[in-house]
Amino acid sequence: MSQKHSKYQIVQGDEFYDRANGKVAFSRRSAVIADNRMKATNGRVDKILGTDDTFSQSFKNAINDDYNHILEQVYLTKELTNYKKVINALRQRPDDAECKKLLQKTRRNPTRFRGSNVLCPIWKNNRINDLTHAAIPRYLFPEKSNELYLLTIIFDFAENLYQLEELIEAQHIAMNDLISALTKKKRGIFIAGCFEPDLKSHEQLTDPTSGSAKLLKHLEITAPDTGGWILTGHFIIRAPNNDWIYDELDSQYPGSSWRRVQFNNLHASKTLAQHMMEIIGYAAKYPKPLFNYDTRGCNKEAGNALMDSMQSAFYGPSLPFDADTVGFGVDDAIRQWALFMNRLGEGKLFYAKESSYAQKWYSQSEWNSIRKYDRDLFQRNGETINKIELHRDTEFYSDKIKSNLKGRCRFLRTRNIRYDEEWHYKTDVGEGDGPVSYDGWIGKSA
């Protein structure tokens, strides 16, 4: 590929910041934002929540009580504004069974609701926090900053929602194949992120300076007059000795001359938790052409005209090809998009996996213990050796299973990322009173 890293940035550690209410924020920026929102009287958040019944009282209470650090979300006001537009659009079709069902979901208490609601800012914030909590202690720590990347892939183009759902399913399979290819090479990968469908008008698809136009040119697709959807993926990954992934992705998604696949270092100015939260935050992102218009007045009329011209892009399960709607406007488009995103759900919009070999990587405390007591094992002549991954069940810089662990290694397979209490307990060696001991964790059954 055309872009390889010649120098790694130093990523700051797991820094957390005290807030005025005693909570600990994920970043300095989020701490300031949350404290300002807490102090505000009739601030922007209060005005959006309003006094009417668009939002349930339980929803308002959760926001005002800063449930699960929701006030730290940088784009909370925009998310609340757009979620309000979704609810109002659904309310216009009280007799539609699917609209009614989704509307009922928006009325449930978000602090008690056990299902998924990818459109709800509170649910999405909870999901982001859960993934961050599971990933940070196991994979995203400063000692491994040279193995951490932000990965963006411009996947493909879909003319309508039918094609978009098929495209998302296909990319899930492609990402799984990528992990399988790495596993065959006895290398691990951690990857967490989401798929972002972005609505593009004909003008945006034909702008020669845009990545969308370059994608269509590469795929030899003529931009439809009705626009369509560009599917992009945003991920944070950890992958040691990373050259293989450049070639694999460049082969699968050719277009290196215009950076269809982008690897970037983490920003040194942000905490690892902040990176994780921002990447996952792309899930169920509200498309600009749908939500950038006022709900009334001349701007709304311009939005209605644009959506009417793009109606074909919204063909899908709730709007079949033979159901042309006269005067298809912004509210119709928002309703279609909301029903579609709810249909996709968490399973198709998010992607968070840890491969079998990644699960055998050392924890932060184990790694620090190795550095402290066995420094010669990971450095020779002052140079870090990364040609062979370090796994807790193999000899250092060898693929051979340790003789005392043969037949005792727990069976591992690629799985969705989750918080593993047993793993944390068995791999936490604290400050490190001596060299790492591996047998206790390896002997456990999966």
Question: What would you note in describing this structure?
Answer:
The protein has 446 residues and is α+β, with helices and mostly antiparallel strands. Among the domains are: 17-132 and 326-349, no CATH class; 358-442, no CATH class. The chain has 17 helices and 10 strands. A 6-stranded antiparallel sheet has the order 6-3-5-4-7-10. A two-stranded antiparallel ribbon has the order 1-2. Helix 4 crosses helix 14. Mean pLDDT is 81; it is low at 1-14 and 438-446.
Summed up, what is this model?
With 446 residues, the protein is of the alpha+beta class. Among the domains are: 17-132 and 326-349, no CATH class; 358-442, no CATH class. It is 41% helix and 12% strand.
List the helices and strands and how they pair.
Elements: E1 17-18, E2 24-25, H1 28-39, H2 44-49, H3 57-64, H4 76-91, H5 97-107, H6 121-135, E3 148-158, H7 161-184, E4 190-200, H8 202-205, H9 211-219, E5 228-238, H10 243-252, E6 261-264, H11 272-280, H12 288-291, H13 298-309, H14 330-349, E7 350-354, H15 364-373, E8 379-380, E9 383-384, E10 415-416, H16 421-427, H17 439-442
Antiparallel strand pairs: 1-2, 3-5, 3-6, 4-5, 4-7, 7-10, 8-9
Helix pairs in contact: 4-14, 6-11, 7-14, 13-14
**Number of helix segments?**
17
The shape, in one word, is globular
- In the sheet with the most strands, the strands line up as 6-3-5-4-7-10
Nearest-integer average pLDDT = 81
Compressed to H and E, one letter per element, the order equals EEHHHHHHEHEHHEHEHHHHEHEEEHH
